């Protein structure tokens, strides 16, 4: 399944606790700047167990805990809420 997800822009960053402790790396500066300038509420979907604000990165709030397949589904949908 990974080759098909890679065609959509998904990548394996790491396994285990890498994302939970913030070692997956920063977002692009342009994205961080747009979040700050636009006062955007950017959400994160996590498959890990660190479901609290700022768990991924400080600019991501709120964070939602869900299974890995649901993380992919929400990423494909491109938004949360209504």
Roughly how many Å is the radius of gyration? 13 Å
What would the principal axes of the Cα set say about the shape?
Answer: globular
* Tally of alpha and pi helices: 3
Please state how the strands of the largest beta sheet are arranged side by side. 1-2
Mean pLDDT: 76
The structural class is alpha+beta
Share of residues in strands:
5-15%
Helix content: 25-40%
| Low-pLDDT residue intervals, each spanning 5 or more residues | none
The count of β-strands is 2
Major sheet characteristics: 2 strands, parallel
Overall description:
By secondary structure, the chain is α+β, with helices and mostly antiparallel strands. Helix content is 30%, strand content 13%. The protein is built from 3 helices and 2 strands, in the order H-H-E-E-H. The chain has helices at 2-7, 29-37, 68-77, and strands at residues 42-46, 60-65. The protein has a two-stranded parallel sheet with strand order 1-2. The chain starts with a helix and ends in a 5-residue tail after the last helix.
Give the SSE layout.
Layout: H1 2-7, H2 29-37, E1 42-46, E2 60-65, H3 68-77
Parallel strand pairs: 1-2
